Structure prediction request, 299 residues.
Amino acid sequence: MTAARSVGDMLSQATVSLRENGSRSPRLDAELLLAEALGVGRAELFRDPARVPTHEEAATFEGLLRRRLAHEPVAYILGRRAFRTIELEVTPGVLIPRPETETLVDVALEALRAMPLAGPGPEDEPLALDVGTGSGCVALALAAEDPFVRVVATDVEPAALAVARRNAARLGLARRVEFVLSDLFADVGERPFDLVVSNPPYIPADEYAALEPNVREYEPRRALHGGADGLDLYRRLVPGAALLLRPGGVLALEVGVGQAGAVVDIVGAAGAYEPPGLRHDLSGVPRVVHARRRGRGSG
Ligand SMILES: C[S@@+](CC[C@H](N)C(=O)[O-])C[C@H]1O[C@@H](n2cnc3c(N)ncnc32)[C@H](O)[C@@H]1O
Prediction:
């Protein structure tokens, strides 16, 4: 029989195993999984590191650790992920929200705040479109942080929309976020939008093949693979969004590393937008291309 181990011992040993297995955040992974197995918050682990978990708790932790050692992402193991001010359910049917996508939300919120409300009625509230919503993270973060915006969010995957709808209901935001099963925006109707945001799949084919196993083997291909050069969706999104945006409305697109120049060119070639701007993420990568729809008479 193996000797009972303390919380501190379990954390140290799991951290070593996860590091040797290639995790980029072995200590954090170990803490999140042990906290889950014990049914406590992470901070609780440090209050009494000498505590010896029960046999059942230790067995639960070993099961979670085995899944992580098989490269399953921690967010799928826990079934949730924090994003800005909200926590989202995530399943293998949706992309795990990334920290860099918070920059897209920053740009979108700033654009919304710069728009004067047309009047006091609900019909005067700004209307945003989130294309390829996945877990709903962008649409729901906008609704959580801007009390006026209404959002239409699309995805081509019914399984993703089911997760996004559950997130909206749990967060109490379902009244202001409408989900539509659609290829891009084909089925959203003719309404003019003040803002179109998207974090489309943008990984080029050769990079997709070389992705780490925790991404390639677990996250949905359709959420990641952007065609031969990663830009397939931008080529459809940019001209299509110009038809949906009101004059002066804003398009904001997340881009992959090294893609900003090409996406700026796609926006320019559409001939419908003012010169685009770039926003860098917290790692200094140009991450969001944004542009205003030209108004009548301005070009
Ligand atoms: C990179 S993920 C982004 C998910 C989420 N917005 C986020 O930032 O975490 C791209 C999403 O676009 C969806 N998607 C891919 N092709 C699409 C299409 N033609 N029309 C609508 N959605 C699409 C995928 O199913 C996936 O949910």
Q: What stands out?
A: Residues 55-69 form the longest helix (15 residues). The pocket of S-adenosylmethionine is lined by residues 95, 97, 101, 131-135, 137-138, 154-157, 160, 183-184, 199-201, 222-223 (CB under 6 Å). The chain has eleven helices and nine strands. The beta strands are 80-83, 86-89, 127-131, 150-155, 177-181, 193-198, 245-254, 277-280, 286-292.
